[in-house]
Every structure is written in C-alpha cells, then in structure tokens.
Design goal:
The chain has 231 residues and is mostly beta strands. The protein has one helix at 2-32, and strands at 41-48, 53-67, 70-81, 86-97, 100-108, 115-122, 136-144, 147-168, 171-188, 191-204, 208-216, 221-230.
Length: 231
Amino acid sequence: MNQRKNMKKKIITLLAFALFYAVRSFAQECSTAYYFSAKKEIIFNKYDKAGKYMGKDVGTISGIKQENGALQSTYRLIKYDAEGKVKEDGNAKIICENMNVRIGFQVPDMESGQSKDAYFTYPAGMTSGQNLESKMELKIKGKTNGKKMDVEFKVENRKVIGREKVKTPAGDYDAVEIGYDMSIRFKVMGIGIPMKLKVLEWYSYGIGIVKTETYNKDGELQETSLLSSFK
C-alpha cells in the first residue's frame, strides 16, 4: 500500500516538474519571437511573380508588457515601394499566451477615420490538417477620388498544411505551413470588382512568420515576402 502511495507521489512530482518546464519553455519561446524583442527592426523583402524586388516591410516593436500571464507588444509596420517611398504606416497588437500567439492588424475605416482590429491566431502545437480560426469578415466604407467605395474582406478555410524547412535571407527555419483563402470585393458606384487569392505562410515557433506567398484564383504566384533580417 505504502509502495503505491510513494509511486503515486513520484508520478505527481514528475508531472509537476514536466508542467513547470513546459510552461517555462513556452514563456521563453514567446519572449524569443521577434514580436516581443524590444527595439528590434524586422525587415521583409517583397518580390513579384518574376522574382523582381517590389519593396519591403519594416517592423519595429514597442510597448512590451506582461499582463495576466500574457505577453503583449505593439508592432509598427511601415510598407515601402521599390523606390523607398512609404505606402502604408500602421500599428498592430501582438499577444502571446501559453504559446498561443495572436497577431493583430488594423483595418482602416476611411469614412469614420478610425480603425478596426482583426487577428490571426497561431496556436501552440499545430498539426497537419488542423483547422485554424478563420472566420474573418470585414466591411469598410470610404471614398476614392470623391466617389463612394465599399470594400469587403473575408478570410476562410484557414488550415495547417504541414511542416517544412524554410530558407530565408535571415536564416533557415523549421516552420509550420498554413494556407487560407482570401476574397476582396471593391464596389465603386455600384460596380463590384471581386478578387480571390490563396495565401500560404510559414510560421516558426519562437521566431514568428518567416515567409508568405500569395497566389491568384488560377494558382499563379503573385507575390513572395521573405524575412530578410531582424536586428
């Protein structure tokens, strides 16, 4: 009887240690991701379907804090064209809790002048075939050249495809490949202009997104984004 009790105590102790080190490992992987590294400059180079340089995205991290067991940071992203001119400049919120990372981005409402927050979630321990949170549908009203314009944005069928070693200018990474369908519909003066895209991205635990590819409805590669450096 005593032997069973001792064995039970040992098992509970081992499980407690395993849980402690797993949680500590998750926290370490959160903090090593570039989303939570203060004063980091993260650069993604972008290329068209022919491999021609199109510009770059430059991200910087600020406002890192820990709240209720979760890490949070503010991610400022500036998009440049091939000539170095700024195309977009915005902020997003990144949250990591128990190695479940939520990457936010702002969707501008051109009519109100405010922005809406939307998130992509990257859970811990993703497996091939796993369906990910993907119900994202946004409607934006605004104006272009004085004319009213409505934009509908939808993400569907977000799923884990598998694991792959990815080569980037910043290094080689073991990554999870994720795919999803994106549809965008512009409506100007009652005329609708639909666009359907397939997006593939590679997410590396403890690092972040390292590569993205965008395809048109016919399956032709349109754009590639590669992690160039983070320093």
